[in-house]
Amino acid sequence: MDQPLAPLESNPPDGAAEATVAAADAAVVREANRRSRRAFVLTGLTALAGLGGWRWLVSQPDEAGIPWTLRRILDANGRVAAAYFRETRLAPVFPPSRARALRVNAHYGLRDKAFDPATWRLRVQAYGTGQMHEFTLADLQALPRVEMITEFKCIEGWSTIVQWAGVRFSDFLTRYPLAVRAGVPEKLAPYVSLMTPDKAYYVGLDMHSALHPQTLLCYELNGVPLTADHGAPLRLVTPLKYGIKHIKRIGTIAFADTRPADFWAERGYDWDAGH
Prior knowledge:
The protein is an alpha+beta fold. It has helices at 14-58, 68-84, 137-141, 169-175, 207-210, and strands at 62-63, 66-67, 122-125, 132-135, 146-153, 159-168, 191-195, 202-206, 216-221, 224-225, 235-237, 252-256.
């Protein structure tokens, strides 16, 4: 004989349902509050740890203008850039139609009101002897002329494609081997120092960068001689490095066994400044 069906349970009264929902909502709120307090505490601890770390960092002794810990990081970046550097690695070149006017940016080393381009001479100190040699712009223009259209990259984040003309640094040193130690033909200086005539701006290069085929002693910009704002009569162009290395109005070149001073490296930037 079939068993009678069990009666269905009746729905709880409305008041019970509301109590169940209210209890669930209260549980959610409690959990949210718990997580919010934990997140607040963790955020506060993280902020305090960051502040403490920053205070420790800036309290460290300076090395070449910045705390030594930051300098170690920049030096590590420089070693990576040096390892990556190859003379066969060239910056991209562009057609003449892509060349644009180069904005004027910074006048470090260009503020000498008494400077006369007509009497300018490039002074080069021979490696090892310290003897000074002087060159006119005509001396440089007598060497093989090189034109290239490359991208000038500023460390501020902007860039412009520019047409340059001048003499390769390597061709200059081939014609005038002043970077070779006198009496030791195989001894080439490992570093180059360049300075404006007023000594207000200066950069350092490793010799591999100086001898790169796209590193120019430049005297023309977009088909015309350099203007005073762009470093007349002679500036450096080295397109695998940021513009802070492209020293304007070169006055003196010297060669060194140790890494020479660099204006922006002393102010917290990477000495190598490659990109």
